Amino acid sequence: MNSARNISTTLGLGNSKFGLICLSSFIIFLLLLPLFSSDYLLYVVMRIAILCLLSYSLNLLLGYTGLLSFGQAGFYACGAYACGKILLGGASLLPGIFIAMVVGGIVAIILGYFCVRHTAIYFAMLTLAFGMMIFSLAEKWIKFTGGDDGLVGIPRANLSFFHIFSVEMNKVPAYYYFVIIISLVAIYLLYRIIHSPLGLIFQGIRDSEKRIAFIGISVKKSRLACFTIAGIYASLAGALFAPLEQTVTPTVAHWVTSMDPIIATLLGGMYSFTGPVVGSVIYFLVKDIIVRITMSWMLILGIIIVILVLAFRGGIMGFLHLWLFHRWK
Length: 329
Known about the structure:
Layout: H1 2-10, H2 17-32, H3 39-65, H4 72-88, H5 93-115, H6 120-140, H7 142-145, E1 151-152, E2 159-160, E3 166-167, H8 172-194, H9 197-214, H10 219-245, E4 247-248, H11 255-268, H12 275-293, H13 297-311, H14 315-328
Antiparallel strand pairs: 1-4, 2-3
């Protein structure tokens, strides 16, 4: 089990020539996709990219620090509502995204102060409670959130920078490039964080928090840093979601929304950096297909997820890493 975890943790797309070729090909494919695809396909890819960011925010807590959170939808909603309000106020896209991330970070620091004092089931229940508080606030704070109707008519504001340049985001391909570039940069930055000394501290807390405390590192402060980064990434996902859908309702803050990144992460493999990407693609596409086929999509989707989780222990990427390890051993 430890060998499997080490393989999954250390294996990255940039660790081999083959991995670099795959990564480059994937990025080129994403950048060329608008040239030969429909707007709907671009919409699907954007939704998957947003789910990837939300899944990475969850996996930073679960896979790398050992903390299960049921409240990521709360930060997702903070980012969506903050960005929506800023854009409805007439601001351009970049300030809306930036302010949404700041709001998500501040909320994460405040809630994290209470959550990181606990672990295991107590941490999970606290995040669930705070997440449902944000959901209730989104429903009741009608003057700010619009209540059950939500924020409607959120514009895809122009991408401008101090009047130096301005790019219209109304067309789907333009906003697609913005979402993809932001997502790729964010994922790369997270990769650097995970492989930095701070990331090693997170993984050390996951494996043995007593050893981390013994060498003089504050476990609570490190958890709070992880919780804050995860909140910022979740709010970034929400900020990208608001202009895409051009509406935000309280359902984005519901605990059911928090289950999407958990399922995607478990499907892909929480000990692999590429796991959230693979899991998000599979989960979103399978869910999208089943919803079109049957009204009982939740039952069918649940059965498929159970089969996948039981068949691929450690997630799809974890299973693949083990298979390659035994094949080339």
